[in-house]
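To illustrate the input format used throughout this study, we show a single complete record. The first block contains the structure-token representation of the backbone; no residue identities are included at this stage. The design step must infer an amino acid for every position from geometry alone.
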């Protein structure tokens, strides 16, 4: 009877990212990828838009509407809004009037506290799930990238998201050494905003900074540097202004957060047992998450550490794919790499 009813249940894997919310449904693959942004009315707290629609409102809303991220640095900072967001995304991929509620596997930063873990679990339960399991993001990213995490060999995974960077050495199905820092893509965007304000007296928004990073950002010198026109508000006159910025300027602007990530990788390597260190030297450092797409980051890490750096296939989806692979045999992973 249990097996019969289980046929109607669709387990869901979620990459609950600071920047993007990615959903994996069992036997269907990745079915949703939307920004982790919610637009609300400041006075009534009524939700006006979620996901893609809300992202379009960032920096463009009237005074009574604000577009916010209910997660910061990989953890929930607004419980009620987060619960509504999770519920909304689940409804998009999981039809109404089903007899059974789905089980959720949610990827979370390895450095979150017990209170923050509880907040994620409660948000998932309040959103309508039957059971909620958590998996550390570096483990999920490694599984999603196809690394043999159960083997008695060492593998280093670096998952650079929007709010956190997770660095872990994995062997025999567990994290031998792991570091979690709240420095990642968002800090790079903030560094670009600061650079424009300090050097050009120009104020730009988060969306503009992110676009600059994607278009001309890099961590390693290019053979042919690029330039881009940037539009913002002049802090002196208060009027709109256009100026040109180069890729070399952006590389210098984001150097501090990039260096912080590299130093965390070095520290993790220093604390890795010698036998596993030799495995990493042979196999390389695997990069996942949206930050792994920063041009030249792999070369910069390789130059600084002396270890080959490899960007995994589809780094934006590695955590979600990892939750999907785990849910294929969920019961065997409970109490091993999952926690409640």
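Output of the design step:
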């Amino acid at each position: 009877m249990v097996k019969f009813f289980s046929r109607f249940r669709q387990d869901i894997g979620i990459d609950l990212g600071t920047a993007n919310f990615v959903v994996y449904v069992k036997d269907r693959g990745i079915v949703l990828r939307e920004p982790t942004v919610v637009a609300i009315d400041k006075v009534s707290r009524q939700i006006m838009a979620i996901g893609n629609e809300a992202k379009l409102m960032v920096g463009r809303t009237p005074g009574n509407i604000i577009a916010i991220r209910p997660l910061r640095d990989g953890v929930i900072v607004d419980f009620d809004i987060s619960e509504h967001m999770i519920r909304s995304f689940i409804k998009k991929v999981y039809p109404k009037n089903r007899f059974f509620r789905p089980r959720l596997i949610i990827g979370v930063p390895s450095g979150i506290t017990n209170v923050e873990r509880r907040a994620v679990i409660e948000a998932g339960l309040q959103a309508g799930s039957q059971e909620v399991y958590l998996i550390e993001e570096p483990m999920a990213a490694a599984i999603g990238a196809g690394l043999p995490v159960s083997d008695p060999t060492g593998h280093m995974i670096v998952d650079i998201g929007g709010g956190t960077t997770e660095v872990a050495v994995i062997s025999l199905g567990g994290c031998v050494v792991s570091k979690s820092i709240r420095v990642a893509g968002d800090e790079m965007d903030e560094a670009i905003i600061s650079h424009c304000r300090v050097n050009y007296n120009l104020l730009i928004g988060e969306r503009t900074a992110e676009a600059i990073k994607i278009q001309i950002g890099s961590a390693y010198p290019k053979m042919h540097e690029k330039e881009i026109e940037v539009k913002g508000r002049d802090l002196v006159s208060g009027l709109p202004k256009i100026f040109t910025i180069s890729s070399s300027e952006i590389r210098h602007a984001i150097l501090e957060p990039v260096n912080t990530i590299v130093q965390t990788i070095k520290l993790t390597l220093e604390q890795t047992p010698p036998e596993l260190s030799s495995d990493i030297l042979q196999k390389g450092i695997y990069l996942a998450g949206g930050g792994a797409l920063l041009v030249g980051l792999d070369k910069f890490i390789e130059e600084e550490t002396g270890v080959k750096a490899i960007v995994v296939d589809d780094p934006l989806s590695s955590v979600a794919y990892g939750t999907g692979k785990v849910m294929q045999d969920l019961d065997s992973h409970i109490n091993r790499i999952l926690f409640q």
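Structural context for interpreting the output: The CA atoms of residues 203 and 233 lie 5 Å apart. DSSP finds 13 helices and 19 strands in the chain.
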